[in-house]
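Example 163, ligand coenzyme A.
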Amino acid sequence: MSKEIELKAPESRDGNAVHQLIARCKPLDENSVYCNLLQCDHFANTSVVGKRDEAVVGFVSGYRIPSRMNTLFVWQVAVDSGERGTGLASKMLGHLLERDSMNGVSMLETTITKDNDASWALFNRLAKRMNAPLEKTHHYEADAHFNGAHDTEWLVRIGPFNS
Ligand SMILES: CC(C)(COP(=O)(O)OP(=O)(O)OC[C@H]1O[C@@H](n2cnc3c(N)ncnc32)[C@H](O)[C@@H]1OP(=O)(O)O)[C@@H](O)C(=O)NCCC(=O)NCCS
């Protein structure tokens, strides 16, 4: 097994393996293979795949919000269970924020459910590392947006940074 995990922009051919990784990473919502394929293709510049020996073990999907291009929205972060706790998620976010395609990005947003301790830890850690403030507000609400079928998603805003 290779020691190194290679981080890079995904390609469309990674879509199917990304789909399988997401399915292994509860509690992430699963999307269609086609959706993951589009993330890997159209949103490659704002997404990251982590590969060990060609196997997809980590993934970050994101995009710049069309009406606020200074804001990177991080859609999902997934790390295979055997690779967790070694900083891979933090490294993927760092790798993404250092890309040339992030020129002009000064804010990061994501949404997190209240009970996802690992995700809160990941983004609190990122805010500290970027020396940027983090604010959180109710965003997509359990009843109003999900008809009670999904926990409330909190909006997390980190920034401004790079200013
Ligand atoms: C969340 C997730 C991506 C973190 O991946 P990871 O590579 O293990 O994270 P890192 O090693 O980079 O750790 C980042 C920070 O989170 C902390 N952390 C990681 N897992 C944790 C857990 N289960 N509980 C509490 N804190 C945790 C780490 O200690 C670290 O903080 P520190 O640097 O202050 O010590 C991974 O657990 C995962 O894929 N979970 C399932 C999917 C999910 O919930 N994704 C996030 C929602 S988009």
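Summary: The longest strand covers residues 55-64.
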